[in-house]
Each structure stands twice: as structure tokens, then as C-alpha cells.
Amino acid sequence: MRNISSLIGIQGMNFLIPLITLPYLVRVLEPSGYGVFGFATAVIQYFCIFTDYGFNLSATQKASVTRYDKKNISQLFWAVMVCKILLCISGFLFLFALVNIVDQFREIKLVLYSSYGLVVGNLLFPIWLFQGKEFMGWIAISNIAARLISIPLIFIFVIHKNDAWLAGMINGFSAILAGLISLFIVYRKKWIYWSLPQFSQIIREFKDGWHVFISTAAISLYTTSTTVILGFIAGPISVGYFVAADKIRQAIQGLISPVSQAFYPRVNKLMSENKKLAFSLIRHLLLFLGGGALLTSLLLYFSAEELIKLIYGESYQHSIDVLKILACTPFIVALSNIFGVQTLLVLGKKKTFSCILVMAGIVSILTLLPLSIYFQQNGAAFSVVMTELTVSVAMFSYIVKSKIPLLK
């Protein structure tokens, strides 16, 4: 419960801090400038996913099993860090190439480059280690401290509609600072010592994280890519309306993540010791998390208009319908998380998990393109809902077909 409370604290701050800066940002940058900022941030998320690769699940699983073995934890830590450094450097070189090839990226290159600090912060922050050791409270301390420092910087430096690059730089700085704080905590706790990673272990970490990486990459096809493709098709103003609504949806939906992150190492460990108790725990999670998410979705739908007007003002009226369409996703995602992460991944069904998400990514692209052309930001929202529903139904169908005793 302590870990869940800590992670809910993080998500709560992730929701409250934007409530302080977001109304200011959307008004100063205006829909077009905020659309550029949202578009660039979405593009950079690809590189965060690439750098993370899947270690937040694959390495967490290993750390949870060997959490008290300092030698193994140290070897794992440095191998994962080397992997992430290589991925981070490769990602920046690829971004540089894109900026020089794609016109839409060239036009906002300053915003893209200034936002790359998010990737560096992702590299520095070993979330998987804190999750594996079940010390989520320190994740909260690192994130909240860094994000609080970013608040005055936004108000001081972002003062013009063309200052999207400064907003991106401040976000990147905040991520890097959080990463440095987390590394200092690891050092002070003496969880690891220096251990030169073996080439064979580096390759092994890449292999072990592959299926999770494919899964997260597939997820990005219907999360991150929604904003990017909408930007190419409908332009920055439609992106601004969509991102404004999606920020609220993601912040509220993010309350699911603390429960998932806190339970994943515990369910994983319990499944290796007592499957009956593990499935009992997952069923309780399904009842309480699913019920809470359903209530959250209903509240989000009926308060959509008031939330948009309160946070963004009258100029974002078009975001109201977007938020109403997206309101059902917290409930759908809660179900898919339990069916997928807490059940399929824990049972070692990584390939099945990946295949379902790749299929969902394809569904997303096939629905997003026509819907965005004809219905702009509303079409993008419909595509997100259809894709999330595809994931949940496919995972549940596999569980039933495979006779996995989740509902018994």
C-alpha cells in the first residue's frame, strides 16, 4: 500500500503541476503554438520509448527476483545503463537526420532539439530499479522535486507564442534533474557498485527487452503517433485541440499506472511461488481497479465541458467533444492493463502480448488516417477509443481461449 500511495502521489503531482502551468501555457502559446509544442513533444516520445526499450518491465522483473543480491543488481544496472546510452545516442543521430529530411520537422527543429532533454532524463532515471526493489516513494521524491522547480521557470521564460522551444527545454531540464536526483539516491542507498558490464550481458538485456519494446512501440502507434499523424494531416491547430483534451485524459488515466507499477513486481514474484494466490490477487485488482476506472470515466464524461473551460478557456471549445469521446478510455485501459501486464506478461506470454499490440497499432493507423481527414481532432479521438477497445477484447479473448484461470 505504501508503494501504491507513493506512485499515486507522483501521478497526483503530475496532474496538479500541469494545472498550475497548463492554463498559462495554452493561453500564451495559443492553439497553434501549443499545437507545435504538443507535436514536438509527441515526436520526442518516440525516442523516449526507443531509449527505454522495455527495460521498465524486463529489468524490473529481474530486479524483483534478485533484489537482495547486490552483485546481480549491480551487473544488471550497468548493463541496462550501457544499453540506454547507446540507444540515446542513436536516437539523437536519427532525429538529426529527420530534421534535415522532413520539412515538418525542419520547421520546428529548435523545439525538437530543446525537448530532447526528456530522452536524456529517461536514460538517467532507473525507474526499473526502484520498482524492482519496491521503493516507489523515492521515484515520487525525485519527480516531484524536479517538476516543482520547473514551475517558476515556465512563468519567467515562456512569455510569447513563439516560446514553445523554451517550454520544451524546461521540460527536458526537469526530466534530467529528476534523473540526477534518482541516481544520487541509488548512490546514497548503496544499492549498487561499479561492475564493468560484459558484452554478453548487454546483448542479453537487449534480447530480453525485445518483446516488451515491440509492445511499447506498438502502443505508441495509437498513442504518440495519433498526435504526430494528426499534425501531418490536419495541422497544428487541430493538434492543439486534441492535445489539450488528451492531456486531461492522460493525467486522469495515469492514476492507473501507480497501481499497475506497484502490483507488477508483487504479482510476478507471487506467481513464481503460489499461482493460486497470484490469480486471487489479480482478481481483486480487476474488481477494485476496474470499478474505480469505470467511475472515473463517467465523471470525466459528465465534467468534460467544465474542465475544458476552467483549464483552457473559451478558445478551446472544440476540445470538449474530444474529451467526451476519450472519457471511456481510462476504464478500457484499466482492463487491458490487468489482462495484459498483470496476467499475460507475468505468465511469460510476451510474444502474445506483443502480437496483440502490434495488431492494435495496425488498427490504429487504418482508422486514424481516414477519421483524421474527415473529422480532424474528433476523428483522432474515435481512433484512440477503437484501438484501446481492440486491445482489451483481444487480450480477454486469449485468456478465455487459453483457459487461464483468471476469472475462476
From TrEMBL:
Subcellular location: Cell membrane
Topology term for the membrane: Multi-pass membrane protein
Claim: Protein transport is one of the keywords in the record: no
GO cellular component, one term: plasma membrane
Keyword annotations from UniProtKB, A to Z: Cell membrane, Membrane, Transmembrane, Transmembrane helix
Keyword Transmembrane part of the UniProt annotation: yes
Pfam family, one: Polysacc_synt
Membrane-spanning residues: 7-26, 32-55, 76-98, 110-130, 137-159, 165-187, 281-302, 322-347, 354-375, 381-400
InterPro entries in the cross-refs: Poly_Biosynth_Transport, Polysacc_synth
Protein name: Flippase
Species this chain originates from: Pectobacterium odoriferum
Upper classification of the organism: Bacteria, Pseudomonadati, Pseudomonadota, Gammaproteobacteria, Enterobacterales
